[in-house]
Amino acid sequence: MAEYNAPLKDMKLTLNHVARMTELSQKPGFEDASADMVDAILEEAARVARDVVAPTNREGDEQGVQLKDGQVVCPESFKHVYQQYAEGGWGSLQFDPEYGGQGLPFLLSIPVMEMWHSANMSWGLCPMLSQGAVECLDLNGSDELKAKFLPQLVSGEWCGTMNLTESNAGSDLSVVRAKAEPEGDHYRISGEKIFITWGDHEMAENIIHLVLARLPDAPPGVRGISLFLVPKYLVNDDGSLGERNSANALSLEHKLGIHASPTCVMGFDNAVGYLVGEPNRGLACMFTMMNNARLSVGLQGVSISERAYQQALEYAFDRIQGPAVGKKEAGPIIRHADVRRMLMTMKTLTEAGRGIAYDACGSLDFALKADNDEAKSAEQARAALLTPIVKGWCTEVAQEVTSLGVQIHGGMGFVEETGAAQHYRDARILPIYEGTNGIQALDLVGRKTLMDKGAALSALVEEMKADIASVDPSLTAQAKALEEAVIGLDKAREQLLQGAEADQVMPGAVAYSFMMLSGYVCGGWELLRQASAAVRLAAEGDDDPYLQAKQESARFYMAQVLPRWKAFAETLNDGSQSIMALPEEQFSSAWQ
After folding, report:
1. Which residues have C-beta within 8 Å of that of residue 346, sequence separation ≥ 6?
2. For this structure, is 306 an active site residue?
3. Burial of 222 (0-12, 13-18, 19+ CB in 10 A)
4. Are 477 and 559 in contact (CB under 8 A)?
5. Do residues 115 and 46 lie in contact, with contact meaning Cβ atoms separated by under 8 Å?
């Protein structure tokens, strides 16, 4: 398996010239996020990802995890990696200094998180969930709960999990059956949860489970769900750990990928838990963590794509094959046009996804530091709109990128020893968990477009048009291609708004296509912005070849990838007709 090296140049350009890190560092409270500080953090994170985390990836995939005597056993190297992660303060970057955080922008944690997932996605899921738990507890927990649990979660001494799904309640959480009975100053939680990522392990001293359950008098449906904090080990008043709580891993799932990430069936048997937020408002509290996780999963799509690309690129230079056109002797397969096509497709989809993901996360910071309510609302709406695109589109294209990685390896890609297959297997979970991509698409058309009558998307379209109008003349052809696509996206927005009034089924029928259309157009926009920054930097005297490569990425994407938008836009002309025309009862016989 090829060595992983974080793409620091692309990360920094995207941070500063797309996600507005330079501007963000001028906001009150973020002054410590200077260019020198950002560079130092990213370079050290890159070293840790390359030298400490990445070497455990293959081992974890081969060894997997086991359940022995009620305890999950992970590869031994994982615990050492986690200890270095916690001691380095990597989990505290963006959190409140009151609880031991460093108070830096959330945006700065994003490239760092990307590195962990590129280096070892199975391992990276553990700190990812902990960070979501911190945010959820910080926003919704009582002062007492925050004082008792946040410092150790922020420091990484303890880890966090998210417990939503049950065997009868997958995407539909309205039928959650786990129960919570009041008992003095706490509750007793009983029930089973499935698909709980990193539900148990020994990498940290304690695990803090956030669990959805119902109170005895709870109303039916999602309005009757409450959120509870259930520690693996009870915590004494002085902060020391007490007895083991009755929250246990009952079994482990045997999965296609992410073998070294324990996916547990968790059993809560009269376990002690504490209410987080208001009674029967648990789903609203949990959405804090879910939205964080959805952005993080989209980022995982970028991460695994980057790792697959780096491996395919190294192989393309190493693999000697017959002469390419114009060559007399055998040479590396990088000389063949189709291999270059696949590599550039991998590269540009990854860079486009990185742009969208960083941009969305930057808006969350700008909303936090906004000078007025209008600016805050605009940034919040922008981040909310981009979130399902980040989660949905970035994970969908990760399937293509990792598959192309296997293809470039040829038959060797189908052999586990090369490592290309692992990236393909690991990526397959991404469109499924934290809300399937069908749900992300429905969220995009429903809550994020129809609900505000397209206002947020219209504002984003205007932002794109302004960037297109200001590009350097050397990028005119790319800008023209993107302009056509942006007009197409705006037309699709209008079709969606009009079609939804006449046909209630139409939004769901076109949702996936609308999400993919939005993703390809946003990806082109982000690449054009990156290319524009590269042109400016080159004009200022920076002769780094990377800047020319960035312009070539935009050129390739606009010519070979962006035109896909037209096929997805065409779906809106059909509405729900081709999907819903066949009666349900005919499906079993129609395809025989």
Report:
1. 305, 308, 309, 312, 401, 404, 405
2. no
3. middle
4. no
5. yes
The single residue of 135, 166, 306, 434 carrying the catalytic annotation is 434
Q: What is the 3-state secondary structure (H, E, C) of 434-446?
A: CCCHHHHHHHHHH
- DSSP classification of residue 219: P
Residue position matching structure tokens 């935009």: 554
Please state the rounded mean pLDDT for residues 554-564.
98
- Whether the model clears a pTM of 0.85, i.e. scores above it, the answer is yes
- Packed helices 506-539 and 8-17: angle between N→C axes, nearest 10 degrees: 100
Average pLDDT over residues 158-180: 92
Contact status, residue 106 vs residue 364, Cβ threshold 8 Å: yes
Q: Tokens 């007709």, residue?
A: 577
The 10s digit of each residue's pLDDT in 27-48 is 999 999 999 999 999 999 999 9
Q: How far is CA 5 from the centre of its chain?
A: 20
Tell how strand 233-235 and strand 241-244 pair up: antiparallel
Q: How far apart are CA 525 and CA 191, in angstroms?
A: 47
Please state, in angstroms and as integers, the Cα–Cα distance from residue 559 to each residue in 151, 305, 400, 482, 520, following that order: 50, 21, 18, 10, 12
Predicted confidence (pLDDT) at residue 592 exceeds the cutoff of 80? no
SS3 sequence of 414-478: HCHHHCHHHHHHHHCCCCCCCCCHHHHHHHHHHHHHHCCCCHHHHHHHHHHHHHHHCCCHHHHHH
pLDDT tens string 216-242: 999 998 899 999 999 999 999 999 999
- For residues 409, 410, 412 and 413, what is the CA-based torsion angle, rounded to 10 degrees? 60
Region label for 434, one of left (φ > 0), alpha (ψ between -120 and 50) or beta (otherwise): left
- Check: CB of residue 431 under 8 Å from CB of residue 396: yes
User: Cα(136)–Cα(151) distance, rounded to whole angstroms?
Assistant: 14
**Can you point out the beta strands (E) in 166-262?**
179-183, 186-197, 206-213, 226-231, 233-235, 241-244, 247-252
Please state whether 176 falls in left (phi above 0), alpha (psi between -120 and 50) or beta.
beta
- Kindly give the interhelix angle for 545-556 and 337-368, rounded to the nearest 10 degrees: 100
As a dihedral over the C-alpha atoms of residue 436, residue 503, residue 175, residue 385, rounded to 10 degrees, the angle is 40
Q: Residue with structure tokens 């939804």? A: 500
Q: 590 pLDDT exceeds 80? A: no
Mean pLDDT of the 236-256 span: 97
Which residue's entry shows tokens 């705006």?
A: 490
Q: What are the tens digits of pLDDT across the range 45-96? A: 999 999 999 999 999 999 999 999 989 999 999 999 999 999 999 999 999 9
**Segment (H or E) for 321:** strand 320-321
pLDDT band at 200 (very low <50, low <70, confident <90, very high): very high
| Comparison of pLDDT for 577 and 547, the residue scoring more | 547
Average pLDDT over residues 150-159: 98
Q: CB–CB of 100/250 below 8 Å?
A: no
Phi and psi of 250, rounded to 5°?
A: -90, -30
